[in-house]
Amino acid sequence: xxxxEEKKLPFDEKITVEKWKFVSPEEYKSKHKExxxxxxxxxxxxxxxxxxxxxxxxxxxxxxxxxxxxxxxxASYLCLDxxxxxxxxxxxxxxWIGEDKKERTLTYNDFFKLVNSLSFAFKNRLGLxxxxxxxxxxxxxxxxxxxxxxxxxxxxxxSFVFSGFGSxxxxxxxDDSGSKIIITADGFLRRGKKIYLQKNVESATSxxxxxxxxxxxxxxxxxxxxxKDIFADDLIKDVPxxxxxxxxxxxxxxxxxxxxxxxxxxxxKGIVRDTGGYMTILWATxxxxxxxxxxxxxxxxxxxxxxTGHSYIVFGPMMVGATQVMYEGTPDYPHxxxxxxxxxxxxxxxxxxxxxxxxxxxKYPEENVEKYNLDSLRILHSVGxxxxxxxxxxxxxxxxxxxxxxGSTWWMTETGGIIISHTPGWELIPMKxxxxxxxxxxxxxxxxxxxxxxxxxxxxxxxxxxxxxxGMPLTIWKDDRRYEETYWKRFEGVFYTGDFAVQDQDxxxxxxxxxxxxxxxxxxxxxxxxxxxALTGYEGVAESAxxxxxxxxxxxxxxxxxxxxxxxxxxxxxxxxxxxxxxxVVGPIAVPKDIVFISKLPKTRSxxxxxxxxxAVFTEAKIxxxxxxxxxxxxxxIEKAYRELKKELGK
Length: 651
Ligand code: PRX
Prior knowledge:
Elements: H1 3-6, H2 25-33, H3 38-45, E1 58-59, E2 66-67, E3 72-73, H4 75-85, E4 92-97, E5 103-107, H5 108-124, E6 133-137, H6 143-153, E7 157-160, H7 167-177, E8 181-185, E9 188-190, E10 193-195, H8 197-205, E11 212-216, E12 229-231, H9 232-235, E13 250-251, E14 257-261, E15 269-273, H10 276-288, E16 297-300, H11 307-319, E17 323-327, H12 338-346, E18 350-353, H13 355-361, H14 367-370, E19 379-383, H15 389-399, E20 405-409, E21 420-421, E22 438-439, E23 445-448, E24 461-465, E25 475-476, H16 480-488, E26 495-503, E27 509-514, E28 519-521, E29 524-526, H17 528-536, E30 541-551, E31 555-564, H18 572-585, E32 594-597, H19 611-619, H20 635-648
Parallel strand pairs: 4-17, 6-7, 6-8, 7-14, 8-11, 11-12, 16-17, 16-18, 18-19, 19-20, 31-32
Antiparallel strand pairs: 1-2, 3-13, 4-5, 9-10, 14-15, 15-25, 21-22, 23-24, 24-26, 26-27, 28-29, 30-31
Helix pairs in contact: 4-5, 4-6, 4-11, 5-6, 7-8, 10-11
The structure holds adenosine-5'-monophosphate-propyl ester (PRX).
């Protein structure tokens, strides 16, 4: 959230709407208190269709907890077989709209058949089995959720790499996960242009352990390079159409997937997600936060490649048998009213999107919204980054017409499901523009000072989760120590989120942004490490440091500071080449808005780059605003570095 707005957050504003019943914050807190016990989650879990119902909430050596350890479950079974048993065979699961306006409609039965064919082929033709790992690198097509469900059906752990990542980012994740198979597509459409994903796959896998590449055809232009490649339609061609693959009975704590996310330092972390705890938090939040009813049309605009899509396109909504919309394109292509056109046409009732998209769309003339009838909407939520009060008001007034619940759900890759929110499907507290609301039932959060003590209402501090919760990670892939250190040691025994937050006098949480060096650009989470490695991998570059700078639309954007090797001269052409390098290696989302050539990076005595200082000099912030933020350096050091840097940059 922009610092200027942070100072005047509307803590005292309370907004209610006619159609919904609201409770006071005090009532919420007293009901919520009752839910902070293990037996609460066990009773929620018992609402799921387990092969073997669990009798225990969790066990294990903290923080490596196994949730519902004696339970047996299968995620694909919950999303498909259970829906069919409940009579939803012919219910529409997915309304898919291509950027070229191509439409496809799939019922639960269509998914069931496709998933079974894929599971059969993965198992019998590719030899995949329980415990194996497969990488998915796919665009937003119906075959994508089908692939995830097909792999989970047979107990194969998948690792999804967002299709906007470039070849090196893909390769790093393939290598770290150790997967031997990659499932991809020939490409997809982006703003009328064809993006050929297979090219990235080729360069990422040319020197890796990948033994097989499966290619779905979205553009109809795929190619097979060698025996390693196979088209997905060929793979399932002769599979009998009524094939049934018995879902594997998984332990609740068996991994369902790995999802890489960026941290403060070092390489991306593979967050390992369990099955039973994850499905339980999704089950609960889909009901409490989205209040999905049988007749609802749900639309989450995220890309499935990020956790939001994993949780609230694939596993969450499908396990309650919801009907969903999926759109291949960007929010303002082919025209700035396309999202509102889709909401009107398909009568979307629950809409889940990002602040960046809202800020982008609110810039266009109002007739782009007013042309369309948005009466079907009843719940609006955003996710991924703080929503500034102004954007919230626009969303609530212009899209929700002051009659919808509108919230900002806070959570992260590591939590698997929503943790702080408004909960229209449970108890609903009045809305406030820009707040996240209160923790969901069964989870307690607090705002702490550096020393771990509780911050006062209105005092900025660090957000932590106080109790273990289903959906917490199993670990970081192949790095138990890093898992424990990163999340459970910063404040002993509680989960450290890495976010700054403030709690107001009513107990509402307002997450303000990252407290570390993670960059949030358009809601996408980027570590500085990968961008810096891409830059230093370019000949002529000696060292680099990347920081996130505030941006009105995207929240933050990366800016790179680069030191060149002796004899290499800075130039605009070199800047462009470096941007191109980042685009190719990490992906288009990571391209720095600007590259600043510099002779020396400001560092603390222990060699840590003073990133906040770089940021401050770039944005011309006052030195007083940063001296408290660089924990390892003395004020004199910071001031000296600040003066030198300003001089060099001519500021
Ligand atoms: O800084 C918080 C921000 O996004 C981070 C998590 O990013 P990621 O793992 O990519 O997951 C995003 C989707 C769940 C958090 O540490 N964040 C997420 N939602 C919000 C938010 N910040 C403020 N308000 C939110 N609603």
